[in-house]
Prior knowledge:
Blueprint: H1 3-16, H2 18-22, H3 32-43, H4 61-75, H5 80-91, H6 106-127, H7 144-158
Helix pairs in contact: 3-4
Amino acid sequence: xxxxxxxxxxxxxxxxxxxxxxxxxxxxxxxxxxxxxxxxxxxxxxxxxxxxxxxxxxxxxxxxxxxxxxxxxxxxxxxxxxxxxxxxxxxxxxxxxxxxxxxxxxxxxxxxxxxxxxxxxxxxxxxxxxxxxxxxxxxxxxxxxxxxxxxxxxxxxxxx
Length: 160
């Protein structure tokens, strides 16, 4: 194996193992079904420190605490929705990576569509074909003599 491929393999292993290092072995539940539930639920919850990572992927101390809390509540027999409701009551809807559509999140969910529509109109007005009205109110068609002169100029230009 060449040195480059070894470096690539080591780098790839380090990059891909980042998420696996977030959940420590001591945090995991003994029951595989409960652990799978905890991992699925943790992937849906936002790390309040990192803000763009799930608590399952984050190595922040607060993310660890939230993962432990999720596992404790699963062990206590709480349903996934009860755990989500508990965390939303405690931290607000911001803790959810995909907040539900509601009056308070309507702008958040509709902003991409608004931006896309605005971009289409802006691009169309900037790059669209000019209409006759865009030529201006003073634009008049060429007279026959002007057309003949223009054709003569163009034919001279085309000849070598």
